[in-house]
Structures are given as C-alpha cells and as structure tokens.
Amino acid sequence: MKMTGTQAFMKCLEEENVQTIFGFPGGSVIDLYDTILQQDKIHHVLVRHEQAAVHAADAFARVTGGVGVALVTSGPGATNTVTGIATAYLDSIPIVVFTGQVPTALIGNDAFQEVDIVGITRPCTKHNYLVKDVKDLVPTIREAFHVARSGRPGPVLVDLPKDVMNSMINFPDKKPVEMRTYKPTYEPHPGQIEKACKTIMKAKRPVLYIGGGVILGNAHKELTEFARKLDIPVTMTLMGLGGYPGTDPLSLGMLGMHGTYFANMAVAKSDVLIAVGARFDDRVTGKIDEFAPGAKIIHIDIDPTSISKNVDVDIPIVAGCKQAMAQMNKWVDACDYDIDAKKAEFIPWLDQIKEWKNKHPLGYVDETDIIKPQFVIQKLHEMTQGDAIITTEVGQHQMWAAQFYHFNNPRTLITSGGLGTMGYGFPAAIGAQMAAPGRTVIDVAGDGSMQMNIQEFATVMQEKLPIKIALLNNGYLGMVRQWQELFYDKRYSATPMEVVPDFVKLAEAYGAVGLRATKPSEVEPVIKEALATDTCVLMDFVIAREEGVFPMVPAGKATTDMLLV
Amino acid sequence: MKHTISVLLQNKPGVLSRVTGLFSGRGFNIESLSVAQTIEKDISCLTLVTRGDNAIIEQITKQLHKLIDVIKVTDISDTDYVEREMALIRIKAEAATRAEVLRIADIFRARVVDVSQKSYSIEVTGSHGKIAAVTELLKPIGIQEIVRTGSIAMTRASKKY
Question: Distance (Å) from the C-alpha of residue A128 to the closest C-alpha of chain B?
Fold first, then answer.
C-alpha cells in the first residue's frame, strides 16, 4: 500500500499497540501532527514542555510494562527531551522518543531549529537513529521498539527529517526484527544456577538484595516464591520497591543511604548476598570496601556490564531475573536438601534481624501541633490501603515516600532513581494516570521539585485527569538543606525558598482544587476530601521545616555508619 | 597493562563516535586507534590499544559489546598475535647525513618514499617498539615531520594440523 512517511509512522505505532503518545508540535513535525488529526486510534496528549512528554511516556511504560512514546519537534523541542531521556536511561525504562529534524538537504547547515540530537543523545540512549531515507523508516521504527523493550530496556531516539516523512513508500509487511549484532540473553546458564543454589544452601545468613530489574523483568512472583520457599529476608533498592511485598515479615525495606537500620545491618553481616536485577549503585553500597565484606556475592542481571562493575562478584548469572528465579525455584524444588532443616538453620539469623528491627525501627518524632511529613505518607498509605500508584519528585519527600508507603506491588512506585530528576513526578503522574485510568495516582512532591514542571497543570486539566498531589511544603530545598545542616555547619546556601507560591491558589488558577493542611488534625480530612474528588487536587501540607530523612549514611561512609533518628 | 582489542562493527555513520564516546564518557583511555573497512563492505574492523587492570579491561570489552552496532569484540592480547604500526617520517638529509639516513632506513627495512635535496621521507612498518627505535635513531639527525598510524593486529592462525 502506497502512503506517506507520516502515515507509515502512524501505522507503525498501531503495529506496536501504541494507544497514547505524549508530545508537543513544531515546524519539523507539522506534517506528522496533520496525520495525527486524521485518525482516532492513537490519542495524543499535549504537554506544556517537551521534558514532561518524555517523563509521561516513561511513567506510562513503568506502569504498563510496555513502551512509552513521545513525539517532539526539532531543535529546542529535541534538546528539551534530553533530561527525560537520561532519566529513562539511568532507570532502564523502555521508551521511544521521536524527534522532528530539518529536511535532509539542510542537515549540517545550522538551519533554523536544527540540532544534532542523535549526537547529543548518543551517551544517554540505549541506541538512536537518524532516518535518512524513507525506505528505512518502517524497519527503523520496528527496530527501535524492539531495542527499547528487549534485554535491559532503555530509551531509543529516532530522528525524523521533514522531507523523509513527506516521501511516499510502500508499507513493508511486518516480520520479526532480526538483528545481527544484538541478541540479549534471557535464559540462565544451568551450571551457574546450580552453583548459586548450592552456595545458598550452605549459607547461614543469606540476604536477597533486589533492584529495578525484578520489576522491569516481571520477576516479582518468582522472586517472592523463592524468598518464601527458603525464608530469605529481602531488601530492596529504591527502584526495587514493590518487587517484594513491603509489609511482608521477610521484607527489610529499602537499603542504602536512606535505607532501614536492619536492612543495612543485615547486608553488612550477611554471608551470602543474592543480588537480583540490582547494580550496586553508590547510594546503595556506601563505602564500597565495607559493603557486605563477609558475603559471597551472587549477581543475577540481564546486562553483563553490570556484573563486577562496582564489586567483585563470585557467581555471575547473566539472565532475565524472571527466568533465573524460575530456574532457581525449580532447582530448590528438585534438590536433595532438606528444605525444612535449612529453614530451621536460618532461624537464628531471622531472630537477629528481628532484634535489629526492634532496636531501630523506621520512625520519627511525632508532634501534636506541627505536621510531620512521615505522618502524611503513613496516612496516605492507610487511606489508600497501600494501593495507589505513587509518583515522586526528587528529594526528602521521595525518601519519606520510599520509607513509609510500604509498596506491596510492582509498578506502583514511579520515581527517578538513577538520575534523580527533580520535576519528574508531576508529568510522571500524567503518564501513570493515562496508563491506569481507574486507579488513584498520587504525586508525592516537595515545594522545590513541584515548581520544576508546574506548567503541567494545564495538561492535567486538558486531559481531565484526577491526579492528586501531596505536596510536602517546607519552604526549603530540603535534601540539600539537610546535607548543609549535617555537614556544612548549617550554612544554608541557596536552599531556603524565599518566595514560594500559594500552591492552593495556583492549583485553582488552573481550574484544579487546592487544599491546605497546617495542623496534624487537618491531614486526614484533607486526604479524605482529595480522594473523594474526581478532579485534580493539590494538597498543600505545611510540614515541619527542618525535618530530616533518617537513617542516613553520610556519602562515602560504610552503610553501617548510620545517623539515626 | 597494555591490551590490544579488535572490534568488528557495522560500517554506519556515527559508529566510531559511539566507540570513542564510550571511552571518554567512562574515563577509559585510548592509546591508539585504527579503523577501516573489512572485506565485507558493511563491516569495519577497529583496532584499539588501551591500558588498565583486568577489571577495567573486562568492563571495556563488555561495554563495547553492549553497543548495538558492535558485532564482535576480541581482546587479542590474550592470544598469540601479530601487531603492526606504520610511520611516515621526513628526515633532514643534507650532504653529511644523507648516507647515514639511508643506512638506518636499510637496517630497519624501511623504504624511501619521497626524496628532495634536503630530505628523505621513509615508510617504516613494524611493532610499536621498532617504530620507537627507528625514531630514536633518526632524532639526532633531524626529524622534520612524522605521521604514525595506530596499531593494527591479527591473531595468528592455529598451528595444529
């Protein structure tokens, strides 16, 4: 069938089952936008800044497990996507970003709104493409989706020159993407599985340390089965929260810089550490030489470069987390070991962990006249039965959400872990709500981050999304302030937000609802009203100004050197 | 330790920049680099020389392999291999030194590729050490210009019959 490049583009998206795209028009993509208008299968969400389009697409992917799609114009439209792309890259999120480009004849001429976006994004995409000939268009788009979603997922950018999109082609038949140079490994090596399982069978103090790979690889069921089969305690990275039920007795919560006391102690004293889809990030390990010093390390990861990058691994397993955990379950089921005897051997270890839990549980000092941020998160958890999708910005509020929401299900915490992008949560809430229309989506925000993509109120209202924003307002860039308090003698350089808008009025200016709580007794009624309202509500919680996030491992210290509440 | 790594990659625009970007972005160093088409016109072979301990070299080879356009990565330092560099050297050669230049060129089996009244240009091929040796000897006479390639390398064929 003969068609234009723009029509072929839309047909490719249909092939990939894309129903929602996030974007912003411009000169180089005006023809594409004309084609969008002539169809009704794909819904286009008009954002107010291109960065938000990418974050929304990213959150859409995190919630659905599919591939998120963003479409922007050339030049500034393209450069505005870079932070969003880097965010997705650091968290391995499958998205495809389509950028318009000036006509091929003008490329390299410093044409109006021309930028070498393929060059700019080379280090922060899994792969990227410039389509120079319309006959390559369809195969490239198919390949882009394949690369984005397979193996260790990641963002892919496709640059589309205007003339290419206006050329005519015969739409080629769909066939499976075959790439000579790219074939991810999913199935684990049976010998390595056996080695790993035997090592676990000899362990006395094992810990499962799980990361975002468990969620991206849909391995939570297999992982949960494995942990419960042997009674192995589980700690999660920020990206791994929800990969194992947070309220389960075997859960140690988050580990690392703001991890729980008992998670960090358990990892430090473990004799076998089973890392599943985690990458030994510096926020997790602290001082690397003192991270799990006595442990044999088993590392399951789909990306070989993650293995032995930061710590030496004793038993590497290159595989999908789901496949590897399934094989380990099978091995344990079929093995000759006495599993009940093995579980009995772990009892002293679990008792020790219980003791740590009782000694330093997660907590905070409650007050009667001033709202504590942790209290707000606890209330949110209680009043949503732990079943909301929580997006976050980046900073203290993000850590409080991670510590106190106790995520029980995968794909319910949508947060920028690797890059730590302030301004992520609000546009992410748009993507999340588009992906899960019936669910409660709450952006847990701070007053600093909130202002980084606040223009997206217009998008939310245009799409009539019932997103809730829980704004923990302390008038500070709180996380940096906390570092300044602890390590810079309270020299608060550039962290007080001397001018903070009236967020309630701001929400109202966009046609959303604004509610404010200044006393602990107002928290519950405000949340109740917000949850009962079917439009966008911003809840402005005026919180204790200098509340800190604890425990805290100072940067570069061993994870057992925690500052506690 | 020095490692020579051979990389087969798709001959496409931007591929070389993906490789060099990987090295600069991750703080690995490149001592020399040489790249050209192979017998298949859509595949290039890139030879690079780098330095690092085993953990770094392992990361380099894995990271190279992770690039979508890379077909094959071989650390040929692990094998028995032949490595060559080439240099073009223009040496000052006036009456007193003309014969000496030729003598040195002859010892190193270099070829004269250009000649003028005041200089010789020679082409010399060999290992990194050989090129270094010949330049050391020619330096006192007066090197006017030197252009060197990066290393290219190839594993030796199996000698088993």
Answer: 10
